[in-house]
Design goal:
Layout: H1 2-36, E1 44-45, H2 47-55, H3 57-66, E2 76-77, H4 79-104, H5 106-117
Parallel strand pairs: 1-2
């Protein structure tokens, strides 16, 4: 019983550490997005902006959750902007989800596997 409590405590502390790391990364990326990739709703954007806005999709989306005036995709854009934006978002979102699962869930599973071996 004592080992189980130690494993549970270790899993919880690892989970909280992971939350702080992910939260810090999201916070820093949101600040970078504010200064490097703020989307103006009155401008028209071309293909190169589609690449840039696609790279900053997740931070701009998180910023948009905090304020409805912040855009994660331009309102006025070319067809190639749309193509590049979707390519980068399509590559980025599954990768980020995989990394989040790996960082947040894997330590908990590993702690319980170690506990079951003892």
């Amino acid at each position: 019983m004592n080992k189980l409590l130690m494993v549970i405590f270790a899993a919880i502390s690892e989970f909280l550490r992971s939350i702080l790391v992910v939260g810090g990364a999201v916070g820093i990326s949101m600040l970078m997005a504010k200064f490097l990739c703020n989307i103006n709703p009155h401008d028209s954007y071309s293909w190169i902006s589609g690449i840039w806005h696609g790279l900053f999709f997740i931070p701009n989306y998180a910023r948009g959750l905090l304020s409805p005036e912040i855009l994660y995709k331009a309102l006025d854009y070319t067809t190639m902007y749309n193509v590049f934006w979707w390519i980068l978002v399509g590559l980025q979102v599954p990768t980020i989800l995989f990394l989040l699962i790996r960082v947040l869930i894997a330590p908990i599973i590993a702690a319980f596997i170690v506990a079951s071996d003892n």
